[in-house]
Amino acid sequence: MVEELEPPAGAATDWTIPQAWDRYSAAEHAMWDTLFARQSAMLPDRVVPEFMTGLDILRINRPGIPNFEELSDRLMRATGWQVVAVPGLVPDRVFFEHLANRRFVAGRFIRTPDQIDYLQEPDIFHDVFGHVPLLANPVFADYMEAYGEGGLRAADLGAIERLARLYWYTVEFGLIRRPEGLRLYGAGIVSSYGESVFALDDPSPHRLGFDLRRLMRTRYRIDDYQQSYFVIDSFEDLLRQTVETDFAPLYAQLAGQPDFATDAITDTDIIYTRGTQAYARARASEVL
């Protein structure tokens, strides 16, 4: 998200632009197919089953970059959501307005071969492959709408940073507890080959039970794999806590409390894995 208040040239007042699907090159479609093949081959035993169901419902497994009009038609029939193209990161209020009205904003560009494993700004593969399949799930779709509505209230209360942490540790980098073990559902993980392995298998990160207040006091990494992941019990519980919590007094309570570091463990945490933090320390030593 960005701070500019005016949309760029060529964008509508809500920052949307045409996807211009017919302008994608064969190389760009091939990049999507490469990324899709790599992720779809390794995710079935790692990702929550609802994600794989969403891929099938929305037919995202067809070759080539998805056409947003066709994708939105199928998504609308499933849960009433649409996918709309934007030129890049959008202002906070624009982002929340779209979510609150069941529109998911997605960048239309795709990474280049030299960016296959990492790029800083989310591209169409992250946005569509990572996020959109779970929007075909009614409960998660309701959570995303509720988050958008909550974002508009947070903007009025000056508390966007707190609420952004909820999005980061659930929608982007969330884990879920299932009888067969922990599973992935966050888009930032499922669209990344490396983090799809790291988040579940590596001994380095903490894996902690979801706690709304704790999470909203926790800083996060934007430049590397996460040092802590939070584990929800179910999408139903995540939605319930979101819609039943009065966030205004919660923001007031949190305002005077210090943040937790990205690698912190507290006395009240439910600990699924106490990480070694070896990866983060090694990365830090490389910078020194």
Strand proportion:
5-15%
- Briefly note the structural class of the backbone: alpha/beta
Which stretches are low in confidence, meaning pLDDT under 50 for 5 or more residues running?
none
Say how many strands there are: 7
- Give the fraction of residues assigned to helices: 40-55%
* Cα end-to-end separation: 30 Å
* Major beta sheet summary: 5 strands, mixed
C-alpha geometry: globular
Which strands sit side by side, in order, in the main sheet?
A: 4-3-6-5-7
Q: Over the alpha carbons, how many angstroms does the gyration radius reach?
A: 18 Å
* Number of helical elements: 13
Order of helices and strands: HHHEHEHHHEEHHEHEHHEH
Give average pLDDT, whole number.
95
Question: What's a concise summary of this model?
Answer:
The protein is α/β, with parallel strands linked by helices and 288 residues long. The chain has helices spanning 26-42, 49-58, 68-79, 92-100, 124-131, 138-157, 160-172, 187-190, 193-201, 212-215, 235-244, 247-255, 278-287; strands spanning 82-86, 103-107, 175-178, 181-184, 206-209, 228-232, 271-273. α4 links the parallel β1 and β2 (103-107).
Q: How is this fold's topology laid out?
A:
Elements: H1 26-42, H2 49-58, H3 68-79, E1 82-86, H4 92-100, E2 103-107, H5 124-131, H6 138-157, H7 160-172, E3 175-178, E4 181-184, H8 187-190, H9 193-201, E5 206-209, H10 212-215, E6 228-232, H11 235-244, H12 247-255, E7 271-273, H13 278-287
Parallel strand pairs: 1-2, 3-6, 5-6
Antiparallel strand pairs: 3-4, 5-7
Helix pairs in contact: 4-6, 6-7, 6-11
